[in-house]
Specification:
The chain is mostly helical. 81% of the residues lie in helices and 0% in strands. The chain is built from three helices and no strands. It has helices at residues 6-34, 45-71, 75-99. The longest helix has 29 residues, at 6-34. The radius of gyration is 16 Å and the shape is elongated. The N and C termini lie far apart (52 Å). The model has no long low-confidence stretch (mean pLDDT 89).
């Protein structure tokens, strides 16, 4: 049985939960703003707060993963989290440009 170090396990689980949070953000955003049955008259406040909290948690996870991957000099996770930061910011920028 191959046992990895705790740092690599931490990076794996950080990457896993970052992907899960990102998919959750995209799913909630699509269901609320892109694919609703009827256009909402006002912005749903609870969904906006949920997305704000999810983006906050996602940013903390991604920055933590980047710092730890840089500290232990792991090139794979450093590239993964770097690309993931760009993807999350591009998604945030696209949503901001679409919905003002």
């Amino acid at each position: 049985m191959y046992i990895r170090s705790g740092k690599i396990q931490f990076l794996f689980w950080t990457a896993f939960f970052s992907v899960v949070l990102y998919l959750w953000i995209v799913t909630v955003g699509l269901q609320t703003f892109v694919l609703p049955d009827e256009r909402p008259m006002q912005l749903p406040q609870n969904v906006v707060v949920l997305l704000f909290v999810l983006y906050g948690i996602l940013s903390v996870l991604v920055i933590t993963g980047t710092i730890i991957a840089t500290m232990i000099d792991n090139a794979f996770y450093r590239k993964f989290f770097g690309i993931f930061i760009m993807l999350a910011l591009a998604t945030l920028l696209a949503a901001k440009s679409m919905f003002g």
